[in-house]
Structure formats: structure tokens, C-alpha cells
């Protein structure tokens, strides 16, 4: 029988969370090729303890994916279901706290592959979920196709951030705090105008599209 004492639940959880947060930071800063030892050093634990808690580096990345998704989802859900001027001001003031999450998402999109696609698709599902909550709460207008709207919003949001991030790729590690501050300065106002007030003054283009898809011309 092992003489090792089992850590109390709270201590065990805090150690796991510390490792996960260190991994999010390391992956975001250095990419997914970073070693378990580097993550362990960042968390102030041994490499063996990382494996003890997560089983493998791949499982650790899965835990990081889930954590990043959850933080983004909860933040967006709050803003959509209970919008407030104070909440908007607070999110703008605290934008730097999300730089590590953006770095992680950037590395995931940059790396691609099955894991990158899986994270993106999961986040598209999350967008649809919190928008549906907003529709039920009366804070978001219904869509003719909620799934496609969610996919467009996710692509638009990711795309605008990734475009800014790629502008700083002359550096080995882009300053994601700067990316978020630039995004806030350049895009928040026009995005809120479009989302709140709309862009086009009449339905001509929408009606034309709906007519086209309901009765498309025969293929030649």
C-alpha cells in the first residue's frame, strides 16, 4: 500500500486548476509544442504531478479547451441574457484579463487539425446556445436559421481578432493584450451599431435572397 497521503479535495482541485491555468498560458505563449516540464515549471509542480492529474499532455489540452470554452460562454451568456451599461463598462475595463484566452484560441486556430476544428465547432455550438437563451429572455431577435447565424457570428468574431493578431506576427509572440485593446478601439462601436441598430435601411437584399433560395433558377 502506498504511503502517499491523498490531498484534501480543495487542495487537490486548486492544484489541478493551477496546472490547467499554467498550461493555458504556456500553450498561448509558446504553442502546443511546449513541454510538460515547462508547464509544470510554470505551475510550480513536478512533471509527474501534471500527468497524475491529467493523464497525458493531450488530456491536459482537452481540459484547457473546456476551460476556455466555459469562460467565454459564461461571459457571453451574461452579456446577452442580462445586458447592462455597467456590465459593458466593466468588460471594457477588464479586457486585458482575457488576453491569455485569446492567445490560446489563436494558437488553436493557427495549429488547426482535428483538435483545432473540434474547439471551433464546440464554440459555434456555444454561440448558438447563448443566443437561444437571449431569444427566450427577449434580449435577442429570433433568426430564420439560428445555427447559421451562430456560425457567422463566431467566424466574424474570430476573424476580426485573428486579423489583428496576424498583424503582429513580426514578433515571435504577439502581444495579445495589445490585440484586444486595438480590437476594442477599432471594432466595438461599429459592431454594437450593427448588432443593435442594423445596417441596411430596407429589406430589398434580404427579400431578394429569400426569394432566390425559395425558388432558385434551374441549372443550365
TrEMBL record:
It comes from Nocardiopsis terrae. This is AcrR family transcriptional regulator. InterPro entries: Homeodomain-like_sf, HTH-type_TetR-like_transc_reg, HTH_TetR, Tet_transcr_reg_TetR-rel_C_sf, TetR_C_25. The keyword Hydrolase does not apply. Transmembrane segments: none annotated. SUPFAM superfamilies: Homeodomain-like, Tetracyclin repressor-like, C-terminal domain. Residues 35-54 bind DNA. Residues 13-72 form the HTH tetR-type domain. Keywords: DNA-binding. Pfam families: TetR_C_25, TetR_N.
Amino acid at each position: 500500500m502506498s504511503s502517499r497521503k491523498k490531498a484534501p479535495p480543495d487542495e487537490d482541485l486548486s492544484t489541478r486548476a493551477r496546472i490547467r491555468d499554467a498550461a493555458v498560458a504556456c500553450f498561448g505563449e509558446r504553442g502546443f509544442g511546449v513541454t510538460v516540464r515547462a508547464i509544470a515549471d510554470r505551475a510550480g509542480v513536478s512533471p509527474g504531478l501534471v500527468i497524475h492529474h491529467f493523464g497525458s499532455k493531450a488530456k491536459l489540452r482537452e481540459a484547457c479547451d473546456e476551460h476556455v470554452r466555459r469562460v467565454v460562454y459564461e461571459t457571453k451568456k451574461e452579456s446577452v441574457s442580462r445586458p447592462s451599461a455597467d456590465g459593458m463598462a466593466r468588460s471594457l475595463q477588464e479586457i486585458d484579463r482575457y488576453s491569455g484566452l485569446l492567445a490560446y484560441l489563436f494558437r488553436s486556430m493557427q495549429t488547426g487539425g482535428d483538435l483545432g476544428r473540434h474547439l471551433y465547432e464546440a464554440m459555434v455550438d456555444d454561440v448558438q446556445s447563448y443566443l437561444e437563451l437571449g431569444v427566450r429572455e427577449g434580449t435577442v431577435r429570433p433568426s430564420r436559421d439560428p445555427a447559421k447565424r451562430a456560425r457567422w457570428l463566431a467566424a466574424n468574431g474570430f476573424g476580426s481578432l485573428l486579423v489583428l493578431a496576424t498583424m503582429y506576427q513580426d514578433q515571435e509572440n504577439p502581444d495579445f493584450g495589445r490585440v484586444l485593446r486595438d480590437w476594442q478601439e477599432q471594432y466595438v462601436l461599429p459592431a454594437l451599431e450593427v448588432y443593435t441598430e442594423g445596417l441596411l435601411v430596407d429589406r430589398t437584399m434580404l427579400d431578394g435572397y429569400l426569394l432566390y433560395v425559395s425558388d432558385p433558377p434551374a441549372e443550365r
